[in-house]
UniProtKB/TrEMBL annotation:
Species assigned in the record: Levilactobacillus hammesii DSM 16381
Record-annotated membrane-spanning stretches: 17-40, 52-73, 85-107, 172-192, 212-233, 253-274, 286-304, 380-398
GO CC term (a single one): plasma membrane
Pfam families according to UniProt: MFS_1, Sugar_tr
Domain spans labelled Major facilitator superfamily (MFS) profile: 14-402
Keyword field: Cell membrane, Membrane, Transmembrane, Transmembrane helix, Transport
UniProt name for this protein: Major facilitator superfamily permease
């Protein structure tokens, strides 16, 4: 087998392995996230406003630290390899998650979420590894397929977590999550293969500069990084309040954690169906067009969620959001891949993770703040408005994405 055939088999093999690992990671995280605000409310005697504020702070702590740490880890990845980053994040977060199950007050939870942020980034690093190994003509389909691994896990995780929380306790889900992440660590260590070639070190007398400057189309990269921030800002603003919103719609009667878990899982179903198909469509007709569609569809679907009066209507709209997520996240990553040299893939993807963390942090704080001052429906209105703003920015400042993007040279 020659080197070209070996590389061809390697990226496909790693895609299958990392799809499964991303599935486990997605399931592990989604077991916890929909109920984190309920966990916070059980750590003290808080008013409604205090619960939403503290929930936003707990969500934001992870992402604040992650935004700082991600670019540093990205530079390490470009020097030492992406597989090492997979091992670092899966083991580190497993420890942090296990300790969260032992927290006795909200400030301990904030501190442990901050520790989680130091080690965050399994799925972004898996995406960077696949993006670096996959031929550019297959990158849209490959990244779209990889995305379905995490979203498939997100589909099952809330349901499993809801059942565990209903039968045992929310604390139990933290210990299950830690165990799943340890399994991911072992699988990544044993099965993932990487023929890594580090980027050359600059000469000792060379002037130090931000490595992003070396990207050919820096303006487009920066716009896409900001788009990642806006998308995460909108999505995460809802995370701290979704289970509380369900609780209100159900009038605090019935299996709230189970229903909240099902509603949190619904976007994953449509995402699994939509993401690979939208990725293949983008490879042939232009990833930018799929991205613009995702923003329009997200705006239309988020706005009416603030008017719902039953969990059934909320469930239908949450299901539809999975389609927009299938267009937004993979296509931003695909456009980043197609416009980034291979030697800078981890650097750009780490900055993408950093912008994602900033969006997560600001979104969590905004969601908790808006819900505390106004009501839960205000969060959905602000998210729809944010998607509309991002669409306008892309339309005016990155007109090239409306056309099919040629692949960037891989040197």
């Amino acid at each position: 087998m020659d080197e070209a055939e070996e590389d061809h088999d390697l990226w496909r093999r790693n895609l299958h392995i990392l799809w499964f690992c991303s599935f486990i990671v997605g399931m592990a995280f989604s077991e916890i996230m929909p109920f984190l605000s309920l966990y916070v409310s059980g750590l003290g005697h808080y008013t409604k406003a205090q619960v939403t504020m503290y929930s936003g702070l707990v969500y934001a702590a992870d992402f604040f630290v992650g935004a700082i740490a991600a670019p540093l880890w990205g530079m390490v990845a470009d020097r030492k390899g992406r597989k090492l980053m997979l091992l670092r994040t899966s083991l580190g977060i497993a420890v942090a998650m296990g300790l969260m199950g032992l927290a006795t007050n909200v400030w301990q939870l904030v501190a442990l979420r901050s520790l989680q942020g130091v080690f965050a980034g399994y799925i972004p690093n898996a995406q960077a590894l696949i993006a670096a190994q996959t031929p550019r003509k297959y990158s849209g389909a490959a990244l779209g397929t990889l995305t379905t691994g995490g979203t498939s896990g997100n589909l099952l995780g809330p349901i499993i977590g809801g059942v565990l929380a209903q039968i045992f306790s929310i604390r139990m889900t933290f210990f299950v999550t830690a165990t799943l992440l340890l399994i991911t660590f072992i699988l990544s260590w044993v099965l993932v293969k990487e023929n890594f070639k580090p980027a050359p070190r600059p000469a000792k007398n060379a002037k130090r500069q931000n490595r992003l400057v070396a990207v050919p189309n820096l303006k487009l990269i920066v716009i896409l990084l900001c788009s990642t921030m806006f998308v995460q800002f909108g999505n995460t603003s809802i995370s701290p309040i979704i289970s509380l919103y369900v609780k209100e719609l159900m009038h605090n009667v019935g299996p709230i954690t189970v229903v909240a878990g099902i509603l949190a899982a619904l976007p994953g179903i449509s995402n699994i169906i939509a993401a690979p198909r939208l990725g293949r469509y983008g490879d042939h007709h232009g990833s930018g067009r799929v991205l613009l569609f995702g923003y329009i569809f997200a705006t239309v679907m988020y706005f009416p969620q603030g008017f719902v009066t039953s969990v059934w209507m909320l469930g239908i709209l949450r299901f539809m959001i999975g389609i927009s997520d299938g267009a937004l996240f993979p296509e931003i990553q695909t456009l980043l891949t197609k416009n980034t040299p291979v030697t800078l893939t981890s650097t750009v993807f780490s900055w993408n993770q950093s912008f994602q963390s900033i969006g997560n942090m600001l979104g969590a704080l905004l969601g908790g703040w808006l819900a505390g001052i106004f009501n839960y429906n205000a969060v959905f209105f602000s998210t729809a408005f944010l998607m509309l703003i991002n669409l306008a920015l892309l339309w005016w400042f990155a007109p090239e994405i409306r056309h099919r993007q040629p692949a960037t040279p891989t040197n």
